[in-house]
Design brief:
mainly beta, 22 strands, globular, Porin, 14-stranded antiparallel beta barrel, 13% helix, two-stranded antiparallel sheet
Length: 396
C-alpha cells in the first residue's frame, strides 16, 4: 500500500504547484461571480510567515521537517527534533515595494526537550508599523505616533506514539495600531488585546521508495483560536485570524550526500465570510456578527456563493476558493547547504495573492543561517521583493 500511496503523493505535490499557475488568467478574470469578497480580520500580522525557510517554500511549513521555527507552523514538530534545545531569530523588512523603510517584523522562537516524549517552546512576534504623523481638524500637527503589535506564546508538546505527536500553544496578542493616539473622531482608541491557542498534530515515519531511504510526514495546525478584538468602547469587535493549516511532505535520500523534499500546505481561515448585503438586509450568505466559536464552525458553509450563469449560487465553489495553496521544494547537500523554491496561490476573489519564492540555507555545527526572497506574480503587489533573514543556534 505504501508503494502505491507515496508516488501518488509526489504527483499531487507537483499538481498543486502547476495547476494554479497554468490556469488561464483571462478565463478567471471574465468569469461570473468574481467580485472581491475577501475575509478580513484584525491583527493580520499573525498570518505573516516569519522565518526564511517556510517563506522560501511558498509559505509551507506544517509538515516540513522539524526546525527552530516550528512554533509558528506546527509546534508538535519540536518533539521530533534531533537536538535537545535551540533558539533563533528572524527579521523581515515589510512592504519594500512601497519604498517603506520603517515597517518590519521581528520573530524569536526557541524550544527545549524535557525528555524523549515531551518538549516546551516559546515565541515572540513583534510588528513595528513605523511612524505616523497625526494632524487635527485644522491641519495642525498633533504629534507623531509609533503603532506596534506583538504576540507572546508558550507551547507544550507530547509524543503520543513513536511516530505521532500533539501540541498546544497558548498566546497573548497585543495590538496598538493607534500608537496611543487617544480620541479620534469622538472615539477613544485603546490597544486591542486577545487570548488565543493553537492545537496541532504531526506524524512522520520512515519508508522505502525504489530502494531509497525516505520519510513521509503529515501535519495539522489550527492556530489563533481566540477571542475577538476591538479598539474602542463604541466599536464592534472583529475576528482574529483563526486558521486551519493541513499538509504533507515526502523526503527522499538520493544518496549519502543529497536529499530532496516535496511539501504542500492547504490553508483556510476559520472566520465567517462577509455576506452580500443590500442596505442592511442580507441577500446571500449568513451574518458574520457572531461569537468566535460559532463563527469558527460557520466558516465552512456560510459563503454567499458564486453567482452562476443561470442565476443560482454555488456556495461550495466559493468555500473552495477560500483555500490557499502552498507548495514547496527543498534540496539539501550534506545536510549543510540547502536550496529552496515554492509557490503560493490565493483566488483573486479572496485577495489574489500569487507569488513565487526561493531561498538558501546554511547549517554548520550549531549555527544556521537562512535567506528567502518573494516575487509577486500577475500584478503589482506591495509584497513584491520581500526578503527575510533568519539566524539560529542548535545544541545537543
Amino acid at each position: 500500500m505504501k508503494r502505491i500511496a507515496t508516488p501518488i503523493f509526489i504527483l499531487a505535490c507537483f499538481a498543486l504547484i502547476a495547476l494554479p499557475a497554468l490556469s488561464a488568467p483571462g478565463d478567471d478574470e471574465n468569469a461570473i461571480g468574481q467580485e472581491l469578497n475577501a475575509i478580513l480580520t484584525t491583527v493580520p500580522f499573525m498570518t505573516i510567515a516569519p522565518d526564511s525557510r517556510g517563506s522560501a517554500m511558498g509559505d509551507a511549513g506544517v509538515a516540513t521537517s522539524p526546525d527552530l521555527y516550528s512554533q509558528y507552523w506546527n509546534a508538535s514538530k519540536y518533539l521530533f527534533m534531533k537536538e535537545r534545545m535551540g533558539f533563533g531569530t528572524s527579521y523581515t523588512p515589510w512592504l519594500q515595494a512601497l519604498q517603506v523603510d520603517d515597517i518590519n517584523l521581528l520573530y524569536l522562537s526557541g524550544f527545549y526537550k524535557l525528555d524523549d516524549r515531551q518538549a516546551v517552546s516559546a515565541g515572540l512576534r513583534y510588528f513595528n508599523l513605523g511612524s505616523i504623523n497625526l494632524t487635527d481638524n485644522t491641519g495642525e500637527s498633533a504629534g507623531t505616533r509609533h503603532p506596534n503589535e506583538f504576540a507572546i506564546d508558550a507551547g507544550y508538546g507530547l509524543k503520543l506514539s513513536e511516530y505521532l505527536g500533539g501540541g498546544l500553544v497558548l498566546r497573548f496578542i497585543y495590538s496598538n495600531i493607534a500608537g496611543g493616539a487617544g480620541a479620534i473622531n469622538n472615539l477613544d482608541y485603546n490597544p486591542g488585546v486577545s487570548y488565543a491557542a493553537d492545537l496541532s498534530t504531526y506524524y512522520e515515519r520512515p519508508i522505502r521508495i525504489g530502494g531509497y531511504n525516505s520519510e513521509m510526514a503529515y501535519g495539522l495546525n489550527i492556530s489563533n483560536i481566540g477571542s475577538k478584538m476591538g479598539y474602542s468602547e463604541g466599536d464592534s469587535k472583529e475576528f482574529i485570524p483563526t486558521n486551519m493549516r493541513l499538509g504533507g511532505r515526502l523526503t527522499m535520500e538520493l544518496d549519502q550526500y543529497n536529499s530532496i523534499s516535496f511539501t504542500t500546505d492547504l490553508n483556510k481561515l476559520l472566520v465567517p465570510t462577509p455576506p452580500e448585503r443590500i442596505g442592511d438586509s442580507i441577500v446571500a450568505g449568513r451574518t458574520d456578527e457572531v461569537a468566535m466559536l460559532p463563527g469558527l464552525f460557520q466558516s465552512f458553509y456560510d459563503a454567499p456563493g458564486v453567482l452562476e450563469s443561470d442565476g443560482s449560487r454555488n456556495v461550495f465553489k466559493e468555500e473552495m476558493r477560500e483555500i490557499m495553496i502552498s507548495a514547496g521544494l527543498e534540496y539539501w547537500y550534506l545536510e549543510q547547504f540547502a536550496l529552496r523554491a515554492g509557490y503560493f496561490y490565493e483566488h483573486q476573489s479572496k485577495g489574489n495573492r500569487k507569488f513565487l519564492t526561493m531561498g538558501v540555507g546554511l547549517k554548520l555545527n550549531v549555527f544556521t543561517l537562512d535567506f528567502s526572497y518573494l516575487s509577486s506574480l500577475g500584478r503589482q503587489s506591495p509584497l513584491n521583493n520581500t526578503m527575510r533573514f533568519t539566524l539560529g543556534f542548535l545544541f545537543d
